[in-house]
Amino acid sequence: MFARTSSRLTLFFAVMMIVFLLCINAASYLLLSSLIYKDQQLKLKSVVEVEFKEHGRELLDGRNRPGRGEIAGDNRMKPDPYRDVAVPLRPFYMVLDSNGRLIRSNEIDPALAQEICDKFEQSVPLNEEIVHQVLTTGEHKMHLFLSGRAVFQGNEPAGSIVAGIDVSEQHRLLEQVIWTQVIISILFLLVSIGFGYMMSRRAMKPIMQSFAKQQQFTADASHELRTPLSVLHSSIEVLESEGEMLPPFSKQVLQDMKEEVKRMTGLVSDLLTLARADAPAMKLSFIDFALDEEFDRLHRNFAPIAIQRHIQMVVHADTHAIVHADQERFRQLLVILLDNAMQYTAEGGNVEVQVDVRGSLLTVQIRDTGIGIPEDKLLEVFERFNRLDESRNRTHGHAGLGLSIAKWIAEAHRGTIKVDSKLGEGSNFIVTLPIVVPKLKG
Fold this sequence. Notes:
Blueprint: H1 2-61, E1 92-97, E2 102-105, H2 110-119, E3 130-137, E4 140-153, E5 156-166, H3 168-242, H4 248-278, E6 286-290, H5 291-308, E7 312-316, E8 322-326, H6 327-343, E9 350-358, E10 361-368, H7 390-396, H8 402-412, E11 416-422, E12 426-433
Parallel strand pairs: 7-9
Antiparallel strand pairs: 1-2, 1-5, 3-4, 4-5, 6-8, 9-10, 10-12, 11-12
Helix pairs in contact: 1-3, 3-4, 4-8, 5-6, 6-8
C-alpha cells in the first residue's frame, strides 16, 4: 500500500517535472531562434530595400528581359557589397519579371536560382513577408530566408525583387543547442525522479511507522477482547438457561445483551482479519477443493435464514470444477456477500447466486432485490467503516467492514470485485477470480 502511494507520488512529481522542462525547452527554443534569426531577418529586409531601389526601375522600363532561366551578362557592372562572403552564405538577390522569369542575380547557383523562381512563379512575394524555405542541394539541406518586393506598373505587376540569405549555419547551431538542452533535461529528469522517489519514501516512513503501531494495537486489542467477550457470551447463556423465573423484561434484557455481545464478537473478528491482512507477513493457505461443495454448504447454511425472512434464495452452481484457493477465506468471501444480500433484502424478495467457469476464470454473481445503492456511492461501499446509511447499518448490526474484507480476499487471490446497483431495485456483486484448476485430458 505504501509502496504504491510512494510510486504514485513519484509519478506525479515526474509528470510535473516533464511539463516544467517542456515549457522551459519551448521557451528557450523560441528565445534562441528569435535572437539568432533576428539579425538575419533585419539584414534580409535591408537587402530587399537596397535592391528594390537599384533594380526596380529596370522592370518598369522593360529592360534586360532574357529568356527563361538566363542570367543577364551585366551582373558585375556594379560592385557587389557582399562579394567578400562565400556564396551562398552571403545575401543574394534575383530580379524576376511578371512571369517569374529570372532577369538578374548576383552569382547565385543557377539550379538554386531556378528552384526559387519555381517557388515564386505562381505568387508575387508580399512586402515585409519573410519565408523560411528548406531547399535540397545534392545531399545537403539548405535553410534560406526569402523575402521580396513586388514592382507594379499601374495596377499590373511588372515583376519582383527577391532576396535571400542562407541561415543553414544558424539553424545547425540552434539544433545543437536545443539537442544539448534536451539531453541535459533528460539527465536532470532522471536524477530528479530518483531523488523524488527517495524523498517520497523518506516522507512516508513516519506514516508507515505510525500505521504499523496502529495496526499492532488493533491486532492486540482484538486478541484481548475476544476472551472477555467469550466469557460474557457464555455467562449470558448460563443466565438464560437458569433464568426460568425471571420476568419477561429481564429475559429481554438478556437477549439484547446476547445480541450486542454477538455483534461485538463479529466486529472484533473483522478487525483482527483486517489487521492481519495489512501485515506484510500475512499468507494465504492455498489448496485444491471442489467448488460445487462449497456452494452446497453455503446454500445449506443460509436456507434457514431465507425461510425465516421469507426470501427466495436460488444457487446455480453445477460446474464440477476444482479451484486452487484459500478455502477458509474463499468461504468467508461468499458468506460476507450472501449475508449482505440477505440483510438488505425485504420479505418476499429474491437472492440469486450464479456461478460460471470459463477456462481458469471463476465468476460469482450474487444478485438481490434489496434496497440498492445510490450510484454516487458505488465506489465507497468497499471502504473500511463505510456507512451509506448510519441508521440502516446500526439496525442490521453492520460495522462497515465486511465488504472491505471481501475486497481484500478477492485481491489476495489476484481477482476483482465490483458492484452494479440501482436504488430501490437491488444490487449485483460480481467477483472474478483466476483460481480454477484446468482439467487434465486423459
